[in-house]
């Protein structure tokens, strides 16, 4: 078979080949989730889900059955401001099956669930790249660069906070691009919904909504329409975020301020290896942030390609 014939054969069946690649990604998750142990902060993350669920049950019981409501303990719980909506489904499934949430089986299910969210994000990432690039192969290459990043792929199974945020962040960008290209009510609602979920997972997820809603508002023809559009969909997004964040239900504004403060100044003190010595996190020099980012994530090269992609995206959208 000549090179030209091989190329024609690959182009003819490229959709099937790309589908097989994604099936292989799913297979990796289905066969690899049992191989991971429990990470050091995983019990705390899952315990936060349990505490939040009990808090929701207390509020519901108070509203329906007029049971006395005591939120003081939850209000002072250090991780109460950490959103966990994305992790509630696996906890509810475990509860319905009467599964012990401290068992190894529950943690394995949690790892599979975490990976499936990551896998879903890879699908949306491919769809996002297809909006930017005409070539399906180039879009698939972008997905594989992200998917095969060792730390990202490894933590896709057990990092219930950062990797989940990365996944929702990617999906959020996709729905913004879709709403921008086709500003129908359903697309705009999905953008608001995923934005609320992204902000609930990490408050910094508000970056996408903040930039996205401004760009969408600018597209409106009249000045009044621009402000009305901005206010309308900002309220929808905040309303969804409020529903997803039980911490705000009893004391909206004080708890909102606490939530922002806790996420801006993360309340963690521990010890890290730095220059061959174990150093307390609060004693690390300021520049360690840039050093660690580049060591772990190749952030500088990623930023370069990110800016190239953003520039290409705006050329096509604007």
Layout: helices, strands, pairs:
Elements: H1 3-12, H2 14-32, H3 42-65, H4 72-75, H5 88-96, H6 104-132, H7 136-147, H8 150-155, H9 162-181, H10 185-201, H11 206-218, H12 223-244, H13 252-264, E1 271-274, E2 277-280, H14 288-297, H15 299-317
Antiparallel strand pairs: 1-2
Helix pairs in contact: 2-6, 6-7, 6-9, 9-10, 9-11, 10-12, 11-12
Write a brief caption for the model:
It contains 15 helices and 2 strands. With 318 residues, the chain is mainly α.
Q: Would you kindly provide a written description of the structure presented here, covering whatever features stand out?
A:
This protein has helices at 3-12, 14-32, 42-65, 72-75, 88-96, 104-132, 136-147, 150-155, 162-181, 185-201, 206-218, 223-244, 252-264, 288-297, 299-317; strands spanning 271-274, 277-280. The N and C termini lie far apart (44 Å). Residues 294-300 have low confidence and may be disordered. It is globular and about 45 Å long. With 318 residues, the chain is mainly alpha-helical.
């Amino acid at each position: 078979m000549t090179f030209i014939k091989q190329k024609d054969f690959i182009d003819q069946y490229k959709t099937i080949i790309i589908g097989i690649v994604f099936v292989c990604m799913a297979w990796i998750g289905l066969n690899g989730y049992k191989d991971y142990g429990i990470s050091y902060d995983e019990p705390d993350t899952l315990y936060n889900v349990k505490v939040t669920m009990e808090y929701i049950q207390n509020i519901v019981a108070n509203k329906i059955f007029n049971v006395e409501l005591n939120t003081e303990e939850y209000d002072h719980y250090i991780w109460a401001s950490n959103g966990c909506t994305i992790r509630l489904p696996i906890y509810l499934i475990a509860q319905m099956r009467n599964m012990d949430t401290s068992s190894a089986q529950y943690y394995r299910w949690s790892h599979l669930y975490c990976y499936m969210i990551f896998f879903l994000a890879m699908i949306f990432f491919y769809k996002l790249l297809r909006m930017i690039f005409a070539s399906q192969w180039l879009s698939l290459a972008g997905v594989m660069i992200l998917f095969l990043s060792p730390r990202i792929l490894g933590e896709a199974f057990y990092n219930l906070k950062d990797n989940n945020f990365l996944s929702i962040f990617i999906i959020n960008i996709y729905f913004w691009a879709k709403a921008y290209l086709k500003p129908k009510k359903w697309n705009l609602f999905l953008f608001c919904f995923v934005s609320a979920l992204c902000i609930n997972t990490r408050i910094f997820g508000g970056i996408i909504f903040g930039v996205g809603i401004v760009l969408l508002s600018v597209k409106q023809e009249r000045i009044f329409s621009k402000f009305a559009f901005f206010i309308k969909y900002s309220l929808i997004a905040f309303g969804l975020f409020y529903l997803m964040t039980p911490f705000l239900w009893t004391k909206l504004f004080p708890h909102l301020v606490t939530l922002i403060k806790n996420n801006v100044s993360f309340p963690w003190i521990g010890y890290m290896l730095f220059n061959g010595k174990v150093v307390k996190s609060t004693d690390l020099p300021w520049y360690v942030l840039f050093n660690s980012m580049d060591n772990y994530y190749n952030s500088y090269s990623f930023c370069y390609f990110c800016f190239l992609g953003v520039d290409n995206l705006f050329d096509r959208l604007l």
